[in-house]
């Protein structure tokens, strides 16, 4: 079985092509800039009005780049779907000075940019250029999705859905979706539509980047020898930690990385392990929240990943940098692959 796994992060999009006939370490791997960085670069090179089409995607620097482009005196028009990359509420999008596309108007003189987290066409052209076969039995993709509810803020809604998912101890692999993907996960739904539009009829496995990473860290060679431990992904934007015992998540907390120090991170990890952490303390500290079902028996080790993982070195915890498949950049893709295999 050949699996294509893509983990779209804030800084990079990490890809792994895994053939079950070979060792995981011999997989083909790619680490490329995240799509929002590529689009922002496109904008900097355009001296013209811009028309955006395509899908909802990870916004990253796109909003900032759009505002900078308009400050130069250019117009920016977005189709309604891709405009939700900026804000789900289109009235808020318009409040920035962005125009929502009107079918009665002519935008033929505008420079066109297509938005989306995934481009199978571009990837296939790249692989074929190296005589690599673009033929997969499974495709799995991870993006960070806050979900959307018009009556609730992103931060609250995202953690409410995490809390609902972990109503009892579950394996991190249970965070993968296929036909059961909820409508409110708009970014994952956009990825699914993109694949279908590019001719991929089979339903892909979709997963949140943080839980793909958590799943992958559990298959690190050190982590596989442990029973009671903490896994933590320290990303550019968010830090997500889970306490693990008997292979199942017993509790989680999620925070904004920029708000954490070595001291506060160590405190939160210890309180997560002991079961004392509360949603209120994390939320009131400008984080997303916390949810604990059970304490774990001990912290045998903290398994850490993510581009800001050096923060763990400012703690007094016993930590290990996760490298499943021998690569610190591939925790998310390994999590996707293992979710397909185990489920």
Report on the architecture of this protein:
The structure is a single chain. This protein is α/β, with parallel strands linked by helices. Among the domains are: 35-115, Rossmann fold; 222-322, ATPase, nucleotide binding domain (Nucleotidyltransferase, domain 5). It has eleven helices and 15 strands. The strands form three sheets. It has a six-stranded mixed β-sheet with strand order 13-12-11-10-14-15, sandwiched between helices. It has a five-stranded mixed β-sheet with strand order 3-2-1-8-9, with helices on both faces. The longest helix has 13 residues, at 262-274. The relative contact order is 0.15.
- Helix content range: 25-40%
The assigned structural class equals: alpha/beta
Distance between the termini: 15 Å
**Beta fraction:** 15-25%
CATH third-level topology of the domain at 222-322:
Nucleotidyltransferase, domain 5
Unreliable runs, pLDDT <50, ≥5 residues?
none
Sketch the major β-sheet: 6 strands, mixed
Look at the structure and give the mean pLDDT: 94
What's the level 1 CATH class of the domain at 222-322? Answer: Alpha Beta
Order of helices and strands: EEEHEHEHHEEHEHHEHEEEHHEEEH
Number of strands: 15
Radius of gyration: 20 Å
Number of helices: 11
Q: So what's the overall shape?
A: globular
């Amino acid at each position: 079985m050949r699996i294509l796994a893509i983990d779209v992060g804030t800084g990079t999009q990490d890809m792994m092509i895994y053939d079950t006939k070979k060792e995981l370490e011999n997989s083909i791997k790619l680490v490329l800039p995240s799509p929002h960085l590529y689009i922002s670069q496109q904008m900097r090179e355009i001296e013209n009005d811009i028309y955006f089409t395509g899908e909802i995607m990870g916004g990253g620097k796109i909003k900032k780049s759009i505002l900078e482009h308009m400050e130069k005196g250019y117009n920016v028009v977005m189709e309604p779907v891709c405009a939700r990359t900026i804000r789900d509420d289109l009235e808020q999008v318009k409040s920035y000075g962005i125009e929502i596309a009107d079918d009665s108007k002519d935008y033929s003189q505008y420079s066109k940019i297509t938005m989306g987290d995934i481009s199978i066409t571009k990837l296939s052209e790249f692989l074929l250029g190296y005589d690599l076969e673009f033929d997969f039995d499974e495709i799995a993709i991870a993006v960070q999705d806050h979900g959307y509810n018009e009556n609730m803020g992103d931060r609250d809604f995202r953690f409410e859905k995490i809390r609902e998912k972990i109503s009892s101890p579950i394996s991190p692999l249970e965070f993968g979706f296929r036909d059961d993907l909820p409508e409110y996960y708009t970014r994952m739904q956009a990825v699914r539509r993109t694949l279908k539009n590019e001719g991929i009829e089979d339903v892909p496995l979709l997963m949140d980047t943080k839980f793909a990473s958590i799943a992958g860290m559990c298959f690190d060679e050190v982590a596989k020898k442990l029973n009671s431990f903490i896994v933590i992904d320290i990303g550019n934007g968010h830090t997500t930690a889970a306490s693990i015992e008997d292979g199942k998540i017993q509790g989680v907390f999620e925070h904004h990385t920029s708000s954490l120090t070595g001291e506060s991170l160590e405190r939160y990890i210890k309180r997560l392990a002991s079961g004392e952490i509360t949603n209120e303390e994390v939320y009131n500290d400008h984080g997303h929240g916390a949810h604990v079902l059970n304490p774990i028996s001990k912290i045998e080790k903290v398994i850490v990943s993510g581009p800001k993982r050096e923060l763990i070195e400012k703690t007094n915890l016993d930590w290990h940098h996760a490298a499943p498949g021998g690569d610190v950049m591939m925790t998310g893709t390994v999590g996707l692959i293992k979710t397909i295999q185990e489920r």
